[in-house]
Amino acid sequence: MSLDKASREGRARGFEAGLVHGRRMGRCQYVLNTCRPANVPLREVSVLFILQGFDAIDKGIIEGLQQTVRVVYTANAVDMLRLAAELRPNLVLVMNGLHVFPPDHASHVDLVRGMGIRTAIWFADDPYFTDDTVSLAPHYDYVFTHEMSCVPLYQGCGCGQVHYLPLAASPAVFHPEHVAPEYRSDICFIGVGFPNRLALFNALTPFLIGKKVVIAGALWDQLLHYSLLQHGIKLQWIPIEESVKYYNGAKIVLNIHRLTYHETYNRNRRNLPGHSINPRTYEIAGCGAFQMTDRRHDLERYYTPGHDIETYGQVDELIHKMTHYLLHEEDRLRIATNGLRRTITEHTFAIRLSKLLELIFT
């Protein structure tokens, strides 16, 4: 092939890719212009929010609190007790209470309750670390979990107020945007290469060869045929802002939930099942990206397969559906924009926090 012919074909491919991206952004912009989230009441209360360190969720909760309560304070766990005594908020809301929290956190919660301040925790890692959360939960007045299978666990350990509250996406963080060509791909997955995910991509490798694939996160060098996909693998944590760009640039974004029990990666010796969808489900949809996810028990409460999300079971089904959607742009756009619309109108943190506050202050 001559250089001139190769250049012409390269320009043609780039032009077509630009058109596809432009059509997607046009659809997304229409949704953004015409959809508004539900109105939520503003409560005359103050909340001290204790950060977990998951930027995507922490930022969403701060954004949601600013829309639902009059006064919002934020702090790290080490400052919780001191600031609760100084500020005297109506509520101390803790996100997750794991990983970066000091070992005496539970005793600090007891002291905050002793001041007459209401306390609540929202678990975002259930059921993967329930060996730890089951001893932490009873120290709080209110326990919220995004995993429906964990509600009986907390009720059984003496918690009087336990509520299932799904997570959400922040429109300020996860939104449609124009991205440069280096962020565009046929198929994208961002997340740690846990064993079930490695097994899936090992099975998918023959199908993925010759396609533009982005896989980002730790452990992916453990793939059986790593060298065949290495050009698209990024063995590092991807900042949230970069993840948003990769979601926006992909024709298909895969969402693969992690295993609920694994002796190395999880602390869930009761092997509680994972019925509820992960935060990534809302985040991908919030970017206006076309998403294919493995099935979870409560998925259809929030998204409808074939309408605003797509699902798969076995590898053969996944390959069959990816083949279809890579060839049928209109089907991808329809489902992706429906998912964006539903996320904006139903699955924001303001909506979730309005429910949380109603349960606490009514």
* Poorly predicted parts: none
3D shape: globular
Number of strands: 12
Q: What amount of the residues lies in strands?
A: 15-25%
- Largest sheet entry: 6 strands, parallel
Q: Report the end-to-end length measured between terminal Cα atoms.
A: 73 Å
Whole-angstrom Rg: 22 Å
Which strand order does the major sheet show? 2-1-3-4-5-6
Total number of helical segments? 13
Helical fraction equals 40-55%
> Structural class of the secondary elements?
alpha/beta
Give the overall pLDDT as a whole number: 94
- SSE ordering: HEHEHEHEHEHEEHEHEHEHEEHHH
Can you walk me through this structure?
A six-stranded parallel sheet has the order 2-1-3-4-5-6, with helices on both faces. A six-stranded parallel sheet has the order 9-8-7-10-11-12, sandwiched between helices. The protein starts with a helix and ends with a helix. β5, α6 (151-156) and β6 (162-164) form a beta-alpha-beta unit. It is 43% helix and 16% strand. The longest helix is centred in the N-terminal third of the chain and has 32 residues, at 3-34. The mean pLDDT is 94. It is built from 13 helices and twelve strands. The chain is of the alpha/beta class and 362 residues long. α1 (3-34) runs parallel beside α12 (329-346), α2 (55-68) crosses α13 and α3 (80-87) packs parallel to α4. The chain has helices at 3-34, 55-68, 80-87, 105-114, 130-136, 151-156, 195-208, 226-229, 240-249, 279-286, 315-327, 329-346, 349-361; strands at 43-50, 69-75, 91-95, 118-123, 142-145, 162-164, 185-190, 213-216, 233-234, 250-255, 291-294, 310-312.
